[in-house]
Amino acid sequence: MRASVLVRAGEVVVEERAEPPAPAGDVLVRVSSVGVCGSDVHYYREGRIGDFVVEAPLVLGHEASGVIEAVGAGVDAGRVGERVSIEPQRPAGFSPEVLAGRYNLDPGMEFFATPPVDGAFQELVSVPAHFAHPVPEAVSDDAAALMEPLSVGIAGARKAGVTVGDRVLIAGAGPIGLVLVQVARVFGASEIVVTDVSPERLSVAESMGATEVADARSADFAGQDRFTVFFDASGAAAAITAGLRALGPAGRAVLIGMGADEIPLPLALVQNKELTVTGTFRYANTWPTAIELVASGKVDLDALVSNHYGLDEVETALSTTQDAGVLKNMVTPNA
Prior knowledge:
By secondary structure, the protein is α/β, with parallel strands linked by helices. Helices cover 25% and strands 28% of the residues.
């Protein structure tokens, strides 16, 4: 099979590799569509994200869909030909986190496109059968792949406890911010305000259900006690501080965006208002909800898609994510 391989920061090549097997409990999936994530871009540009360092050739891509081509022992052979959305993780075993349902925090987790585990910018991948989630025909290949960033949004909304009547502030109108808009709307938020520096992205946020948008460079909600929930999907320290200052008493903040390893925290504000400040690490038990939201038309993922690229064009897909008008580049390994 063909695979697009990051050999070092800034250099991607296409290689011929042996097809992966389908061990017991796994399914072999022919990959249809893969979204380009910000983490892929970090690895491509810098060769690392925090403690995760690319020390050997690595296949990027973890937002994936495909068709089951073969099954391993113990898996129903009737699943061959099934269209699936791939949950790109493999817990190591039965750690306390796995047993508690927080398998995303399993210390032995193997996650697609996280060194040294290869991802989905290749023609075939092997995944645990229970993490190959069937999708209905009404869901496109791209949308099936983008269940992954939608799952990030669902996990964040659950972490924040978003419910009917919440007033939500979202910093960042990239793909995660835009799925957060849609998820917050579905979960019952009465007010959804989005900040960003891009007028184009703010316009998309409005089309997806934001009740108000504002330029992050001039917006100032501090001291208004207006919001009950704040999501950071930007990773910008200034946006995080501004978001915390916009929360009312007992407000909940969930930090999702990738930014600096450390930022200043307005501790007196957190204490005096009894704010809850937390983060999310991927997701757990989100795919059934994600598929239902998309299949029912409550969430639109196809609207995020900007461009499609083949395996020979992965470097372009990675290097153009910040171009004007680009929300989500998709790679189609078998096109």
